[in-house]
Amino acid sequence: MTPRVSKQRLIALLPRLAGRRIAVAGDYVLDRFVFGHPKRVSREAPVLILRFWKEESLPGGAGNTAANIRSLGGVPLPVGATGDDPEGRALREILQKRGIDTSGLAVVPSYATPTKTRILGGGPHSIKQQIVRYDREDPLPGGGDWRSLFDQRLAAAAAGADAAVLSDYGYGAVSPASVSVLRPALSPGAPILLDSRHRMTDYAGVDAATPNEEELEEAAGSPLGDSAEKLSAAGAAVQTLLRCRSLLVTRGSRGMALFDGDGPPTLIPVHGTDQVADVTGAGDTVLATFALGLAAGASPLEAALLANFAGGIVVTKMGTAVVTPDELADAVASDRVLLA
Asked: Where are the domains of the chain?
């Protein structure tokens, strides 16, 4: 089953993304990129020596979702935690410079802000390739003053939101209990969307989820391979466990599969070329765009198509990147494959 949505309809939806308020609750991460140019092989060990070129720090995890919402004209309402450390201060400053209010981010002194450092190398005029990544990660403390403060801020953000996002990277900011905090605070009809790395099926009661194919396999308990039947069965099973209307499965070069209500999934071919520069944070971009689309009144299929275009754009960029309204509009206007 393939989508048939008019180009004019998607173009008409784009201005409606602006100003939509999205509560973004979850694990806020600092993504650090260190770039270098190859110098020689070390005499000390069989490793490449890079001559330092530059370093960049960008918002990752829920921070990347918030950054993409902001870039597309929405208003992210972050709720999460950082440590009282240089990485936490850097992350908050980066978000603030992008016009994102960070007052909903609690500072937890005993917590080390999750930081993912990627080392990339390549010639001065070539695409830099990721050589190694190292993560500094510790879970948030299970209790304490920060937790009650978090729930208060979560309810407050939801009260003024058109939708809410739960971004669970496993560091402990959000849990299945967050759904019960969000639901009564949100306006009737405002959706809750989920992206959870390893416990998606625990979040019963959300309205939509955006797993990748590997996460769907983990939830289903078996590999999918190239089987359309296994994909359909796994998606339907997860929908039942979550009691959600929509499940948008990202499938890399095979595009997306949208489960919406009953019946087989809608298969959405990948947007763009196979010239992928970097997939870092692409799932966050998909989540942000899907949430904005639903908040703007798009159908799940329309929102999924917008998310597919956004994902196809962001993987052509290096690092944890964002999509702009002009880029999204150009992608929709120039499409010759996906739209009627």
From this structure: 7-29+60-113+138-334
